[in-house]
Amino acid sequence: MSKHFQLDGNYVRYEFSEFGGKFSPVNYDMPIPTGSEVLLKVDFCGVCHSDVHVHEGYYGLGQGRKLDLGERGIKLPVTLGHEVVGTVVSMGEKVEEVSVGQQKLIYPWIGCGECSVCQRGEENLCTKPGSLGVFKPGGYSEYILVPHQRYLESLGSLNPANASLLACSGLTTFSAIKKIQPVHNEEFVVVVGCGGLGQLAIKTLVLSGIENVIAVDVSEEKREIAKSSGAKFAFDPRDEKIAELVAEAGNGNCIAVLDFVGNDQTMEFGLGVLRKGGKFVAVGLHGGEIRYPIPFLITKAISIIGSYTGTLGEMKELVEFANKHDLVNIPVEIRPLEQAESAVEDLSAGRVPGRIILKNG
Fold this sequence. Notes:
26% of the residues lie in helices and 24% in strands. By secondary structure, it is an alpha/beta fold. The chain has 2 domains: 10-168 and 330-359, Alpha-Beta Complex (Quinone Oxidoreductase, Chain A, domain 1), CATH 3.90.180; 171-306, Rossmann fold (3-Layer(aba) Sandwich), CATH 3.40.50.720.
């Protein structure tokens, strides 16, 4: 039996029943949490580029090839939304550490909990994932069921709307940045793609004491935002001398590239500007393939690192970090939950300079 009161009636999830299809409001019976489960009313849910890819149903692999997400275990219909802040309304009989009325940030990258990867605390890399908003219903919904209280984190003094971004955008950048540290004072970090993730990355780098940041983006508006976030330089990658400009600005000492776009062109550029011993961290999923001379990889001792979201432990670190700094104060647009479909469309079309956050009620 669940603890406290049980909500009666129905609730609405905004879901699509075919990849690339329309979103529809669908009524469901209110779930009854049992065991370690916790039911939360969704307060805020960020709209992430991963939502765009899942809605499309594929990742581009280059040369016209696609990775079909349906074949990777994503079952239709899908209720997107993995950047969720919600309020606890009910819980199963085994839950002891949370109370009705508490507002929590939800860790969505849930694994099987049993394999060696999960036992290492890397549930985000589990090969049998149950990620909320991907494999299980997410936050484009009035209510969300979370399988265990350990996936709930208190917000502290954070703005709850902006704090929702920490579950994916913030966590993804935080985990990627940890992979390039330590960065010494004279070294430079290049951030490719200055949308929501890139902006958070620049702020996190600067607040971590890494002040030599070079931003690269095709949008003049986003380059200006990048500079206001702390980037020392901002360049347009369409400039035919972009590699020379970045190398000169960084004094030939670019130790790391964080690529939040992830296509053939950005990877070729990023690998080309790294110094010896540099690290290229691929985060964006726009698609393509890597072509890089193996002798360069070896003689320059370059590391190519894929970075996918982050661990539960890293999210806890990030929330503490965000409470000490003004991290999530980035441009956001609040839209009602009912506009989930247009939000995903606008993000896909590149019409969002910062981030969209959906508000329920």
